[in-house]
Amino acid sequence: MKEDSGGLKKQLIQTSRDLEQLQKETLCIKHRLSLLDYQAPQKKNRRTADKVNRGFICPYLCGKSYGSDISLNLHIRLKHNGGSKIQREELAQRMLLSLAKQEPMPEHNLNLPPKFLEQFCQHYSQFAKELELTYNTSIDILLK
User: Among 25, 63, 89, 108, which lies 20 to 30 A Cα-Cα from 45?
Assistant: First the structure.
């Protein structure tokens, strides 16, 4: 009888292993089925060129217009050697500061758009006025 119980024990161990293997295979099949059920997100359709509102016009008067500020700035940087928007604004600040201090203009290799310095000066002055109104105090600014 001892021999029979040893054989039953081996059969029980083997059945247990077979059951574990079947459970693993079942999980694998379920995972594969879930992947088949997955639907990729729909492709976003781009707007055609005629549907883009081109409200950003090149200040260099080359006749180009763009649908975003980013596209316009890329055009200015690549086609007109105008640098980035930040570089143009920093240069304008340095130029205004040198004008106010009656110093020579800083050296630069950027091609600024026509009337850029005047427009920047107006914007800068308006910004200072708004700050004065907001904080109810006088702000010492270079150009008023």
Answer: 63
